[in-house]
Amino acid sequence: MNKKQIHNLIILDESGSMESIKQATISGFNELVQTIKGSTELYPDQEHFISLTTFNGLGINTKLSRQPVADLEQIDERIYQPNSLTPLLDAIGQSVIKLKYELDEKREHNVLVTILTDGEENASKEFSGEQVRRIIEEQKKLGWTFTYIGANHDVVKTASSISITNTMVFESTVKGTKKMFEKERSSRLSWLKKLDDNEDAQQNYYDEESK
């Protein structure tokens, strides 16, 4: 019997302002991967894949593309080097469309898209906010879950403008970043349990009462 495919798409800000929390971000990502790896023991019928897109004014880069989590090694400074501006909308639009067309529609799968940024959009050239909103709404109809983690801007307002209701605000310090990743790992495990229990997992991702 085919396992249920879980695609974890992480869209990670690599702009210059992330430099101060670079090491905490690298460590947090690696710990998140370990959490996903460990979840396969709890839910053996789930098969996990990770895609990682980073973005800054120098480009939008696919660092990992649907890589089986079991084969994934830790990332380090060679992969994550913060610099330049924040083309947030282009990163979301490109990443979501790329994964959409790569997935086999005949296979059962669930998708969790996690967007992490410490600042506002300021450099996109390809996608507008309205275009990204429509893209996200179309994928939500197919059961995709979207979350938005942000600092130093109106996170709820920005996420809402592109049809994302699962939001978390964090403090862009080393301590704040560590705390944010701890909550993200806990919320992700709760999301996976909902999938295993065949519950609606699209809403209340960061809702403590749902855990």
TrEMBL record:
Superkingdom: Bacteria
Q: What is this protein called?
A: VWFA domain-containing protein
